[in-house]
Amino acid sequence: MAGGDTITYYGIENFPFSDANKALVWVGRFCGLLSVIGSSLIIYDVVIKSRKTAYNRRGQKTKTPMSNYILFLMSIADILASTSVFILGPVMVPQGQAYQAVGNTATCTAQGFVNWAAICCGILYNTVMAMYYLLFLKFQWKEETFHTAGGKFFFLAFPVLLGVGFSIWPLVDGAFNFIGTSFCSVLGYPFGCDWTPDMECERGSNSGAVFQSFFFSLISCFVIITVCMALIWLYVVKIEKASNRYEYGDTQRQSRKIAIVGTLYSLCFILTYFAQLIIYVYLFKGMEDPFWAYVLYTIFLPLQGFMNAIVYFYRQDKDNLVYRTMSNIRSSLKLSSDPKLSKKTASSSATNVTTEGGSSSTPSHNVEEGTTKTGEENPKAAMMVEDPTTACASSSMSMGVIQE
């Protein structure tokens, strides 16, 4: 890595204008666009479900799981990071310093601040998400506990305050500058002043301290998330042994499902930031990071929103956005391709309107005094852990139908 009039990076002279960097710019934009779409779908689905009334098996109104609010804010942070760093990318870099650069110092600073704040908030939301699953599953916290003033502050407000607050430090220091690739982040200016003995930094003289603080914070979040997932799975194994002994299969399945979803979100975080962690380890040792690590960084860092969306809709409950959309598309295709089926569907709809208010020949619920038939006949069902990953699915039953 070398500074001067031309930047040599990864052994490639004038790297910001090289064919390799141009290709990575467009790869990052494509991945960033996928992430924005995924995060937008999550935000839309959470907002739609939060407006509906959900009931538990006792007929009581339930709160939207805290995990959905965490994911909502995490998705906003992902959209900001993916848009500023990868979709806009070099457009915000001062003109003449990189491929497609048309910005100035102000746009570079703005990009760096949004990027840094959004990534810090995203990392912290991933961390509190892992803690949420641990507290919910192992320590049996109820949603009412998470929705207290203290719970809302810690799980929703604290990551924003800490992430944005930490980003003010490099902002005041002038440490948001072009980093020699395709966007602006924390680095001293002019390029190379951080590691060149005879070169004095005009901006970002404390960028090294900022970098080290972020590096150790990232490692700490990795450790916290890993420990939370380990404790969750130790608890699940314990539950499974007890289930096998006492034959409480429903509790076993619910606990495993919650643990799987929590683990998948954690894996999304690890895949997203693992390459960045490798790069920081090299830089922390005073070595140039390998080119393959930067390629993985460009691919995976903007993909968290997309991966989160896969996990979010993985539940396959009939109330989620993807299921409804695909069902409507399949139904429309069948109706358009088969006129007889279209007439039959219209006739069936008319029959349903005529008999509305009557009894159903195949009732799916037996609702009586806020309980289900399953809950009355099988006491074991009352011992099941309420699944936060599907609790919002019952929100579509806002006409008084109780969640199974």
Structure explained in plain terms:
Helix content is 62%, strand content 2%. With 404 residues, the protein is mainly alpha-helical. The chain has a single domain (30-322), classed as Rhopdopsin 7-helix transmembrane proteins, CATH 1.20.1070. Strand 1 (54-55) and strand 2 form a beta hairpin. The longest helix has 40 residues, at 207-246. The chain is globular and about 70 Å long.
Percent of residues in helices comes to: 55-70%
Number of domains: 1
Main sheet attributes: strand count, strand direction, barrel closure: 2 strands, antiparallel
Number of helices: 12
The rough form would be described as globular
Q: Ends: how far apart?
A: 60 Å
Low-confidence stretches: 349-386, 390-404
- The strand order across the widest sheet is 1-2
Structural class: mainly alpha
List keywords for this structure.
single chain, 404 residues, mainly alpha, Rhopdopsin 7-helix transmembrane proteins, two-stranded antiparallel sheet, two-stranded antiparallel ribbon, 12 helices, 4 strands
Question: Topology of this protein?
Answer:
Blueprint: H1 19-50, E1 54-55, E2 61-62, H2 66-88, H3 105-137, H4 143-146, H5 149-173, E3 176-178, E4 184-186, H6 207-246, H7 249-284, H8 291-300, H9 304-312, H10 321-337, H11 339-354, H12 373-377
Antiparallel strand pairs: 1-2, 3-4
